[in-house]
Predict the structure of TetR/AcrR family transcriptional regulator.
Amino acid sequence: MSEAVAAAARKRGERRKAQTRASLIRAAQQLLAEDRTSVPILEITELADVGMGSFYNHFETKEELFQAAVESALDLQGAVLDAWTEDIEDPAEVFARSFRLTGRIHRVEPQLSRVIISRGMSMISSEHGLGPRALRDITRGCESGRFTIADPYPALLIAAGAALALGQAIHDHPERDDAQLADQVAEDILRMFGVPPGEAAAICRSPLPSVVDLLEQALPNLPHVPQPDSA
Amino acid sequence: MSEAVAAAARKRGERRKAQTRASLIRAAQQLLAEDRTSVPILEITELADVGMGSFYNHFETKEELFQAAVESALDLQGAVLDAWTEDIEDPAEVFARSFRLTGRIHRVEPQLSRVIISRGMSMISSEHGLGPRALRDITRGCESGRFTIADPYPALLIAAGAALALGQAIHDHPERDDAQLADQVAEDILRMFGVPPGEAAAICRSPLPSVVDLLEQALPNLPHVPQPDSA
DNA sequence: GCCAGTTTTGACGAATTCGTCAGAGAGACT
DNA sequence: AGTCTCTCTGACGAATTCGTCAAAACTGGC
């Protein structure tokens, strides 16, 4: 037991450092969402409520921080989607659910969404991006015969591009029904994958759990996510 | 006739001013393509080979210049695609040709391509973006019964997102066969539009004119495009 | 309580960047 | 040639931004 206590103690310093880093990343995400990436470092640290010098303890340049901020947001989004679809068998349902929930997230978590939109395109091929995850799911669908496309990769490009464009459209036109739009896009893409039209429509109109509830369940259990300060 | 001469003369000043503006826009496009948008204004004017003070004769802020640079690139791309497809009847062929040629442009004109990728997502709904043009073509296809989708708008989002993702992929993975990739993506999207698979495949495998030749023909005739200096 | 190792902090001088402005230059008109 | 107007130009002072560093704060081990 004393070992456990010691271990916990040994990690208090690390946690403090991680807190500072997380604060900086959260501030960077806020600025990224507001599309204000050429702010002075002092403004970032003020927003993060840390000393100006702390920035240089964690990052060499602003760009490095913003990069980390985007990767963190993408990792979060990926982990959340995985958690929400892990118990589904049908690849078509996995894809539809991921896509439709992503659409809902754009409205419920506009900051996360904007961060991803801001740089998601250039991260499609990155290991942090949603590309690898989507490619895995599409490939699974092809191998199981559920999807009948010639090659998963072009399909991935379409799906990933559509996901980002959908988010952009939801932000640009808040008056539209975002849920219906997301469902329609998902349905179109399923048909492109080779899912019969009737089935695609049924899958994309099935009821979804509330994103808010899902997020609340998922967030506390996710590893290495910048948490809001528990002041 | 003296009127015509006077008019020509009156415009010499305007042309000189437009030259300076075009130089600035070309410099901005180069920087945009290199993803270096937080450079000092002096560096932009040096690249444009104009005096530092000239910048403020044309733009209030750097962002305003970059905005103009993106709009100029998008207008060019749109005008070129229109010129290349104006005499085609079948909406499916118009779409396929636009999409496949856009894919080729990413490799042939990497700078134009990168500029569009850098901000194309946020310009989908803009009048300068490719969105309105694509929406027009897709709607035409729906009305003529060639496309059987429920709603043109979600389809537009998929096509636009895919076009940008394709460009990104071509830059990220230069070892891939970009022409084949673009053709496959176009084919998948045509099938999504409701074009029978066999037809979609045939349309997207038909031979294409050389983008280089087309560009050479189209460029000199396009209005209000920043031309390279004819030193 | 004290020391060694780490992280945080913000003040400061150095360096960069900004935006203005007065003068030069080019063109149009008399 | 003279003058008027509009654009171009780059030097300059003002303002911003950077990155370092020595001191302070915190932590863990003794």
Observations:
- Chain A has two domains: 1-60, 70-231.
- Residues 13, 16-17, 20, 50-54, 57 of chain A lie near DNA strand C (CB under 10 Å from a C1').
